[in-house]
């Protein structure tokens, strides 16, 4: 391979090894404590990147998160086995502004240890995970030098930043007392004293390709120092799930022109010769020793996260036969999960439920009931692929779309336990909270419902206009119902099956969730409210039709008010709310209109209703 001027000049290729959900662009809606829930795409994307480098005979430095090294050590080893260097990008995806000097030192050492443990190589380079170093952050280079790092690549000259020292634009040495460290800033183009990046993945996607190529050719011809280029492995993955909860500009930055990135990178690899930073400096220890034996598996380190970022801790799972200690009988609990066009959310849900099962296993015998509400995408196929072979999972499918409340009722009626939970497929409420909610279903309580509007509840990233509407509707229901709840529309609940299974609802969709509470209230059931955190939906799209839902709630409110104040028969909520019960024959003719209890066998643990 030759550079465009026909010479043998080598340029420097750096690649950020991280998954799509770990990037700083999405940090406003995705917290590190939820990383484990997302579908792992970094393995496939890294191998795609390695194949592209092999095709063009290029070498690179991969800046990897320590979290990746602990969770997926095999991908770190594959990078090294293909002849590339692995350097540190910190442990978690944090900016320099989020860490004190002491925290920064701890983070780089933890990452270094994780990567060396996985790769068998010596970690000698570093790049900040989020953002770049400003002139006020150069103390970090001193710490890196003190800890034995040979080089850093965290400077990005931009506009007037670092403009006072022209040497900062190219490869140079930073001195820290009696120690030193090489610095590899990102390559930039300077115009009228202002510096503009020309070598990063986001800039290659957002700016005109011809302009970026022209700037690279100019650097290749005129600069004595090598061109420093970078991209992320997820940028070669145009099919990655879209996190639509992120603000518009962040979505543009994350997803725009992903489809053109593989061809753009391939074009650069054809035009220039690339090597990694460690190879450029001639560093030793970039390959593992012949007798290196990797440790088995990764080491999850959740408990070392800051408290605000730590997920619920898994309780140890033990059995009486293994430990010799008798276990108390576990309470059977069913968890009903309605699904409608949730193909993208199911891998996220699966990872979440594994953690939930571990947390609740000691006290509860969990069974999961999935109700596909006649989805139009591949939800049913994915449900069978992900959960179909599990003995603790029961898969149901509506022949017609009936709505979320109808799907919840189907799941409750098909459950074989007295305690039945319901949750959203998108995990907007954290299902780990069931460990606190289930005990609240004590004698005399028929429903425990979660509320983000409770004084001790919380809402994260949900649009203000939706909160205003939801709170307004709840205020209306409080006017006419006996139990004054902060919200009546949450799907995140714990039911007593015997109190709910015989209730028929007129509204099968989102309105039916409030209708269930209203009917329980009017018949004299006791409802307990639990303060919870509601987060914005991350994957897929909301199924709620806002205007239709508002109008529907107003109509439902009028019926509830009539049932309450006109002294209707409170012991017959079906009559008081003008709904009707139909028999099995009628249900077959009109599956939307009531409780169809004539399931057709669809396979092991699968039914179509």
Main beta sheet, described? 9 strands, mixed
> Could you tell me the mean pLDDT?
83
Strand composition percent: 15-25%
Tell me the overall shape.
Answer: elongated
How many beta-strand runs? 22
CATH evolutionary superfamily of the largest domain: Glycoside hydrolase/deacetylase
Strand order of the largest sheet: 19-16-18-15-12-13-14-22-21
Radius of gyration: 29 Å
How many domains in all? 2
If you had to describe this structure to a student in words, what would you say it looks like?
- Strand 4, helix 5 and strand 5 form a beta-alpha-beta unit.
- The longest helix is centred in the C-terminal third of the chain and has 20 residues, at about 545-565.
- The chain is elongated.
- Helices cover about 35% and strands about 15% of the residues.
- Helix 18 runs parallel beside helix 19 (about 545-565).
- The strands form five sheets. A nine-stranded mixed β-sheet has the order 19-16-18-15-12-13-14-22-21. Strands 1, 2, 3, 10 and 11 form a five-stranded parallel β-sheet that branches. A four-stranded mixed β-sheet has the order 4-5-7-6.
- It folds into two domains: about 10-290, Glycoside hydrolase/deacetylase (TIM Barrel); about 335-465 and about 485-505 and about 515-540 and about 580-590, Alpha-Beta Complex (Spore Coat Polysaccharide Biosynthesis Protein SpsA, Chain A).
- It has about 600 residues and is α/β, with parallel strands linked by helices.
- The chain is built from 21 helices and 22 strands.
Explain the layout of strands and helices.
Elements: E1 10-17, H1 42-56, E2 61-64, H2 66-71, H3 73-81, E3 85-88, H4 101-119, E4 125-126, H5 139-146, E5 151-152, E6 172-176, E7 179-183, E8 188-191, E9 194-197, H6 201-206, H7 209-222, E10 228-232, H8 248-255, H9 261-271, E11 273-275, H10 277-281, H11 320-323, E12 331-339, H12 346-360, E13 364-372, H13 379-387, E14 393-397, H14 404-414, E15 419-422, H15 434-437, E16 447-451, E17 458-460, H16 464-480, E18 493-496, H17 497-500, H18 510-522, E19 527-531, E20 533-535, H19 546-565, H20 573-576, H21 584-589, E21 600-603, E22 606-608
Parallel strand pairs: 1-2, 1-10, 1-11, 2-3, 4-5, 5-7, 12-13, 12-15, 13-14, 14-22, 16-19, 17-20
Antiparallel strand pairs: 6-7, 8-9, 15-18, 16-18, 21-22
């Amino acid at each position: 391979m030759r550079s465009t001027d026909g010479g043998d000049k080598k340029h420097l290729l750096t690649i950020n090894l991280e998954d799509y959900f770990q990037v700083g662009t999405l940090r406003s809606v995705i917290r590190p404590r939820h990383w484990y829930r997302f579908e792992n795409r970094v393995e496939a994307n890294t191998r795609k990147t390695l194949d592209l480098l092999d095709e063009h005979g290029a070498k690179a430095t991969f800046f990897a998160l320590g979290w990746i090294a602990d969770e997926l050590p095999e991908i770190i080893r594959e990078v090294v086995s293909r002849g590339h260097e692995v350097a540190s990008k910190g442990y978690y995806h944090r900016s320099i502004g989020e860490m004190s000097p002491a925290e920064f030192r701890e983070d780089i050492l933890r990452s270094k240890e994780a990567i060396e443990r996985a790769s068998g190589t010596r970690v000698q380079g570093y790049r900040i995970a989020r953002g770049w170093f400003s002139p006020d952050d150069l103390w970090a280079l001193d710490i890196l030098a003190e800890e034995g790092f040979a080089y850093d690549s965290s400077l990005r000259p931009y506009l007037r930043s670092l403009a006072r020292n022209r040497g900062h634009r190219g490869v140079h040495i930073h001195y820290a007392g009696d120690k030193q460290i090489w610095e590899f800033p990102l390559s930039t183009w300077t115009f009228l004293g202002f510096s503009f990046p020309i070598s990063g993945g986001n800039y290659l996607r957002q700016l005109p390709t011809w302009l970026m190529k022209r700037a690279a050719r100019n650097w290749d011809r005129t600069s004595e120092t090598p061109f420093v280029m970078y991209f992320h492995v997820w940028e070669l993955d145009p099919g990655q799930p879209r996190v639509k909860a992120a603000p518009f500009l962040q979505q543009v930055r994350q997803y725009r022109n992903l489809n053109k990135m593989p061809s753009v990178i391939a074009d650069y690899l054809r035009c220039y010769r690339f090597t990694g930073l460690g190879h450029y400096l001639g560093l030793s220890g970039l390959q593992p020793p012949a007798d290196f034996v990797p440790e088995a598996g990764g080491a999850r380190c959740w408990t070392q996260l800051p408290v605000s970022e730590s997920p619920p801790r898994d309780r140890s799972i033990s059995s009486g036969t293994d430990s010799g200690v008798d276990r108390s009988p576990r309470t059977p609990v069913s968890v009903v999960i309605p699904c409608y066009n949730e193909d993208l959310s199911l891998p996220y849900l699966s990872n979440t439920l594994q953690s939930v099962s571990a947390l609740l296993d000691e006290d509860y015998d969990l069974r999961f009931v999935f109700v596909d509400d006649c989805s139009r995408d591949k939800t049913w196929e994915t449900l069978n692929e992900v959960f179909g072979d599990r003995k603790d999972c029961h898969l149901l499918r509506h022949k017609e779309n009936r709505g979320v409340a109808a799907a919840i009722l189907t799941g409750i009626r098909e459950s074989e336990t007295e305690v039945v939970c319901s949750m959203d497929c998108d995990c907007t409420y954290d299902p780990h909270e069931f460990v606190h909610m289930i005990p609240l279903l004590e004698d005399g309580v028929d429903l425990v419902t979660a509320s983000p509007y409770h004084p001790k509840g919380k809402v994260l990233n949900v649009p203000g206009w939706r909160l205003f509407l939801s709170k307004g509707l709840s205020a209306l229901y409080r006017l006419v119902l006996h139990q004054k709840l902060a919200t009546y529309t949450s799907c995140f609940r714990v039911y007593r099956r015997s109190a709910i299974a015989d209730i028929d609802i007129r509204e099968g969709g989102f309105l039916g969730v409030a209708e269930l509470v209203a009917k329980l209230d009017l018949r004299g059931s006791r409802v307990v409210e639990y303060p919870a955190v509601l987060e914005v939906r991350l994957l897929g799209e909301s199924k709620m039709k806002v205007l239709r839902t508002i109008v529907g709630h107003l109509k439902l409110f009028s019926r509830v008010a009539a049932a309450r104040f006109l002294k209707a028969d409170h012991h017959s909520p079906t009559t008081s709310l003008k709904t009707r019960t139909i028999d099995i024959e009628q249900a077959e003719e009109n599956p939307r209109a009531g409780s169809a209890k004539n399931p057709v066998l669809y396979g092991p643990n699968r039914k179509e209703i």
